[in-house]
Amino acid sequence: MQILSIGKEISYNGLDITSIDISEITKQHDIEQYDYVIITGGDGRIRRTLQQLHDMEKIPTFILNPTGSFNLVAKIHQTPKIEEVLELLARGEEPNREKHHLFKLNEELFLFSAGNMGDLHHIILSETMRFGWIEHGPLKYLLAVLLLLPAHLLLTPFMLMSPRKFFIFTPFRFIKRFGSFYGEVKEMTIDLNNHHNLIELDGDVVTIEENLLHIRPMGYIEVVTK
Q1: Is 87 exposed, middle or buried (0-12, 13-18, 19+ CB in 10 A)?
Q2: Which residues, in sequence order, are bridge partners of residue 205?
Q3: What does the pLDDT look like over 147-197, one tens digit per residue?
Q4: Residues of CATH 3.40.50.10330 domain(s) within the chain?
Q5: CATH class of 2-102
Q6: Burial of 158 (0-12, 13-18, 19+ CB in 10 A)
Q7: Does the pLDDT of residue 210 top 90, yes or no?
Q8: Per-residue b or e along 10-20, where b marks 16 or more CB atoms closer than 10 Å to that residue's CB
Q9: Model's pTM, two decimal places?
């Protein structure tokens, strides 16, 4: 059994673990030979890793070692502590796995969230406050919510009616669609009438230099769960 750790040096007695930085993924030409990939970081780190791996014929099962602010993917799947998973593997046992669906916006992958509404404003303001004693942890996100609350209350009804605005949040898939909000992803095209667009994807802010957004499901990955 071979395990690749991305983002943190990890070792465990009885297991063959290779550790690399996320910047070294493109230099690792034999990733398909690994049985598991450990990702240390938050939701954005998972998305950025998958962005570089999704074209492979066989993507290894992911073991999440969440160290981000929200770690929504880890919470959805109730992922166990990394030590528990490694102990299980060292005993030669197979961990439980669950599928997590992937989606694509033009050439960018995302796992659960995409949009250019209040989510985008919230992430930009939160990242602006990434300094000092609020740099780490969720406090900066809470402060951003409070600061943006009047604007959200005023603007959200208009954004929900706009064909140039959208927000996708798949944990709320029980809400199929409400105006420009989507809880379920089906293949769709959105014309933003602008060739330079800031879009939020899983907590990352990316620039899409196209006016047409083509959004569609892209299969799934397997995640170790309890």
Answers
A1: middle
A2: 200
A3: 999 999 999 999 999 999 999 999 999 999 999 999 999 999 999 998 899
A4: 2-102
A5: alpha beta
A6: exposed
A7: yes
A8: bebeeeebebb
A9: 0.91
